Amino acid sequence: MIYLKTMLKCIDNSGAQMVECIKVLRKNPKNFASIGDKIVCVVQKARPSTSTITGASASNRVKRGDIVRAVIVRTKKETQRPDGSVIRFDDNACVLLNKNDEPIATRISSVVAKELRDKNFNKIVSLAPKVV
């Protein structure tokens, strides 16, 4: 469950390391986000930009203070799946998105939940090294 002011780890190579949720984008009146939901967040901590960084181009890099959209890929809160299994991760994590709801980054460094496939984030699922 991701609320306002929740800090999340950014697991892509967009340049952000930690982001803070400032808005949950949902149609129903619930004020929390779970796996597969979109949020608006501000970059709190970013990797230093050097000319030797490969992967994401300089135009795709984000800096501290940038306001971006993101999708939740992991939460600490237990999530029950339709088959009855329960899944829980060690941290809250997200992947940054552009205006067209496509990932900004070219690489994802950690595992993501398979619920993203049901919510049509197939590009993120294909970039991830493992889907749990």
Task: Describe the fold and architecture.
It is a single chain. The chain is built from two helices and seven strands. The radius of gyration is 14 Å and the shape is globular. A hairpin with a 5-residue loop joins strand 1 and strand 2. 32% of the residues are buried. The longest helix is centred in the C-terminal third of the chain and has 6 residues. With 132 residues, it is mostly beta strands. This is Large ribosomal subunit protein uL14m. Belongs to the universal ribosomal protein uL14 family. Keywords: Ribonucleoprotein, Ribosomal protein. One of its GO terms (molecular function) is structural constituent of ribosome.
**Approximately how much beta-strand content do the residues carry?**
25-35%
Provide the gyration radius in Å.
14 Å
CATH topology label: Ribosomal Protein L14
Element-by-element helix/strand order: EEEEEEEHH
Largest sheet: 5 strands, mixed, barrel
Average pLDDT: 90
The tally of domains stands at: 1
Number of strands: 7
Give the strand order of the largest sheet, numbering strands 1, 2, ... along the chain. 1-2-3-4-7
Count of helices? Answer: 2
According to CATH, what is the class? Answer: Mainly Beta
Q: Which CATH-level-2 architecture?
A: Beta Barrel
* N-to-C CA distance: 18 Å
Helix content: under 10%
Helix-and-strand structural type: mainly beta
Extract low-pLDDT stretches: none
